[in-house]
Amino acid sequence: MNDAVGAADRLIAAVTAGIDAALADAPAPVADVYVGWVAAAEAAECPARYRAAGEGGWGFPGWSAPTAAAAVGRAALDHHVHARDGGPAPSPDDVPAPLEVVRGWIRAVAVAGGPGVGGWVGDLRADGDAATLAATAGLATRWLAGFVRVLGWPLPEGLALLGVTRDDGASGAPRWWPAKGSPVTVACGADARIGRVAGSGGHVLVVHRPSSADDGEIHRRATFEAAAGALALRVAPAAVLVTAGDTGERARVVVDEDLLAAGGEMIVEVIRQRVAALTRGHDPADARPSARCRWCDEADHCEPGAAWLAGPGRWRGGLPVLAPGPVGAGPGAGLPAVDPR
Ligand code: SF4
After folding, report:
1. Does the residue 182 lie in any domain?
2. From the alpha carbon of 282, which atom of ligand 1 is closest?
3. How far from each other are the two terminal CA atoms of the chain, in whole angstroms?
4. Domain assignment present for 93
5. pLDDT tens-digit profile of 54-93?
6. Ligand 1 pocket check for 289: Cβ under 6 Å
7. Read out DSSP for 147-216?
């Protein structure tokens, strides 16, 4: 992209105008709206579900083992790379042992009451919540192992991990607010960038996922993160590299103004749906069934979702979805039963 700063400026102007217009239509003040990839995907793919999510789904989702996995994995890898415990910096041959790197970070850095995900993990330790701690460490280990597998070791020249809050408070996650005091926070979920963020552009955002997805989701993810990253860093990236730990795939999506505009529209759509939620929650008219229905809290009373689950959603990978079955004697005992939905 020739004019990376100008492209980001144009995106900022367009998204700010879109958000202002959406908020101006609100019949009452809108509280915190956290616009990350999950919110953007839900608002685009099933607006009825996003609107029904309530405060728990509209604001920052908070930490849990699944939501903290990437943040812990990044922080642990950053700690390993920069030898934050005062030890020698790792050599090129010092390929990180993922579980030991995560354990070392938890022991050395996670402090109860501290900033970011380190404070949350520190609280788990202080509370003796071994189950959540073990689940978090396991998922973070998987994230870190996949990241190093796909990106290689030593990490590529010029790679900087993003969303890492260190003791000195530096290097927080890329965020953007349309105005001071705005209820809207746009969060870029890129895990790293390759190359300096300079006026001449050229840096690449890296989005790593432990498991692969279909091409459509990869492109939508790249679209959102390109726009969110351009807003937060005020320079458009040249590309978004979407990687998957289980398959080792690397999908490089080149960023242009059309992609940025599409990502900006995803962001504004979240605000439109949040405003609509003030007067209209779940509405079957714009419920759009998909695999999301399997984990949707609305599934019990959403007719389109229930119909999908009883039809195409009954099949996954060519096989019917299985549910736990009876254990004991008799035909089929000990075997999973077919989900009757
Ligand atoms: S059950 Fe499916 S279609 Fe219905 S709201 Fe949930 S995700 Fe949307």
Report:
1. yes
2. 5
3. 49
4. yes
5. 888 898 888 999 999 999 999 999 988 886 556 666 676 7
6. yes
7. HHHHH-SSPPTTEEE-S---TT--S---EE-SSTT-SEEEE----EEES---TT---EEEEEESS---HH
